[in-house]
Amino acid sequence: MINLIIFGPPGSGKGTQSDNIVSKYGFHHISTGDIFRNEIKNKTSLGMEVKGIIDDGKLVPDELVLKVLESTLDKCTNHHGIVFDGFPRTRFQAEELKKILNARSTEISIVLSLEVDEEELAHRLMNRNVEMDRTDDTTEIVQKRLKVYHDTTEPLIRYYKGRGIYKAIQGIGTVEEIFGKITYEIDKVI
Ligand code: AP5
Ligand code: MG
């Protein structure tokens, strides 16, 4: 059982590369952002609760994220691998994920961290705003999301480095080039 975290700032390509990983390896993709956007689209009570937070570029409270994560994991059986995308984002989430996986007799195999400079991130998210209409892709909110990433999520790099499972991937280049580096790392752990 492979548990892979695809890590990186907003716009670094986590979702894009997760799709490729799912196609090649048949892993299950868990994107907490996608889950929340789906809840918002379906106007569920959870969706209504998180909409304002996401549109404002802030983080959804840990307790809510973990509840969603656990119920998603409970439904996700018979997979030889899981890609966690956009989760964990706080130290608390990382520690809870460890406990949740340990309780299932498994653990994080590798953290693949996409490294992309800020100028390129802003450029990609502005382009996506035009194409996909994600409500959190405005100039002001993108800057806020990047700040939240630096303040709260980026410190997890140290946390995972300390556990010897962190692998930085140069996230600039074509999607295929980057995916080549990702498969090289995954093939070492499967
Ligand atoms: P989430 O959905 O996780 O968004 P994010 O982390 O901000 O990242 P993005 O989805 O914007 O970017 P990505 O890295 O997936 O890049 P993508 O492949 O799309 O979270 C959204 C919100 O939900 C958060 O702000 C928070 O409010 C809440 N949330 C979610 N999880 C949470 C958690 N765990 N705790 C608390 N709150 C949480 O690529 C971006 C663009 O670039 C695309 O247009 C793509 O086509 C393009 N692109 C990709 N690769 C390349 C390339 N190599 N070259 C050029 N363009 C490329
Ligand atoms: Mg994404």
Question: Alpha-carbon distance between the termini?
Answer: 8 Å
Q: Which overall shape is indicated by the principal axes computed on the Cα atoms? A: globular
Question: At the third CATH level, what is the topology name?
Answer: Rossmann fold
Query: Which strand-content bin applies to the residues?
Result: 5-15%
Number of domains: 1
| Second-tier CATH architecture | 3-Layer(aba) Sandwich
CATH class: Alpha Beta
Largest sheet: 5 strands, parallel
Structure commentary:
This protein has 190 residues and is of the alpha/beta class. The chain has a single domain, classed as Rossmann fold (3-Layer(aba) Sandwich). 58% of the residues lie in helices and 14% in strands. The protein has a five-stranded parallel beta sheet with strand order 2-3-1-4-5. Helix 2 packs across helix 3. The longest helix has 15 residues. The protein binds BIS(adenosine)-5'-pentaphosphate and magnesium ion. The site of BIS(adenosine)-5'-pentaphosphate has 30 residues, from helix 1, helix 2, helix 3, helix 6 and helix 9.
Task: List descriptors.
14% strand; binds BIS(adenosine)-5'-pentaphosphate; 5-stranded parallel beta sheet; Rossmann fold; single chain; 190 residues; alpha/beta; binds magnesium ion
Give a quick precis of the structure:
Helices cover 58% and strands 14% of the residues.
Task: Give the helices and strands, then pairings.
Elements: E1 2-7, H1 14-25, E2 28-31, H2 32-41, H3 45-55, H4 62-75, E3 81-85, H5 91-103, E4 110-115, H6 118-132, H7 139-153, H8 156-161, E5 166-170, H9 175-189
Parallel strand pairs: 1-3, 1-4, 2-3, 4-5
Helix pairs in contact: 1-9, 2-3, 4-5, 6-7
Bound molecules: BIS(adenosine)-5'-pentaphosphate and magnesium ion.
BIS(adenosine)-5'-pentaphosphate is lined by residues 8, 10-16, 32-33, 36, 53-54, 57-60, 65, 86-87, 89, 93, 124, 127-128, 136, 145, 174-175, 178.
